[in-house]
């Protein structure tokens, strides 16, 4: 009889224990599920942040590339130096000059691609009057470099209609000449993109009679 009563008392305790264990397991499972969802949410946020940073970085690279490498600049065409092979000057009463000048001209290319240009002509002027021409052959200037060319030209005052200004210059010992030209060509980037580019030369050449040299070259 005593054993039967003990069994009746133990059995309800066992049922309560199992119920509590199941409840605790469910709570742990729900808690683990919530933690797993939170971890996945944080990972998604982190991946989105990485993706946004990558997009911003790539956009910055593209903008920088387009503003530097892909931006096509106009080459510069200049007279860099000049010397005289012959140098003949008249007197103040018989003002005249005849020069043979050897000039070094440069085509400066500041692009990340070659500049291929056509042949051209450099016209030289004194006081607005043409006094000579020099031929520039077709060639090309490499990327971020300067192509140097040597040209020879005969300069003469024979075409001047008036010698009054030349007489004044002979007395002052300084003669100012002007060199003008236009160079046409194409800039090629990454062997695919081509764009036509023209550049103008406008240089003032100051000649010293006494020294028979070019004192200064100023290009716009």
TrEMBL record:
Keyword Membrane: yes
Residue ranges of domain Late embryogenesis abundant protein LEA-2 subgroup in the record: 105-204
Domain of life, per lineage: Eukaryota
Membrane spanning stretches: 47-70
Stored Pfam families: LEA_2
Presence of keyword Cell division: no
Keywords: Membrane, Transmembrane, Transmembrane helix
Protein name listed in UniProt: Late embryogenesis abundant protein At1g64065-like
Name of the coding gene: LOC140015982
């Amino acid at each position: 009889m005593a054993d039967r009563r003990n069994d009746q008392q133990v059995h309800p305790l066992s049922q309560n224990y199992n119920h509590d264990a199941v409840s605790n397991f469910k709570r742990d499972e729900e808690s683990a599920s919530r933690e797993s969802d939170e971890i996945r949410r944080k990972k998604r946020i982190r991946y989105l942040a990485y993706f946004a940073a990558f997009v911003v970085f790539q956009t910055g690279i593209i903008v920088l590339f387009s503003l530097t490498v892909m931006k096509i600049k106009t080459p510069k065409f200049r007279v860099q130096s000049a010397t005289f092979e012959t140098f003949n000057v008249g007197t103040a009463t018989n003002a005249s000059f005849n020069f043979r000048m050897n000039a070094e001209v440069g085509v400066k290319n500041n692009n990340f691609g070659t500049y291929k240009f056509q042949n051209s002509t450099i016209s030289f002027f004194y006081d607005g009057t043409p006094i000579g021409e020099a031929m520039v052959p077709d060639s090309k200037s490499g990327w971020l470099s300067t192509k140097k060319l040597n040209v020879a030209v005969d300069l003469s005052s024979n075409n001047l209609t008036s010698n009054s200004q030349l007489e004044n210059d002979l007395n002052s010992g300084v003669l100012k000449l002007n060199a003008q030209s236009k160079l046409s060509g194409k800039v090629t980037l990454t062997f695919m993109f081509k764009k036509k580019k023209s550049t103008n030369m406008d240089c003032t050449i100051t000649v010293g009679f006494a020294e028979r040299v070019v004192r200064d070259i100023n290009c716009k």
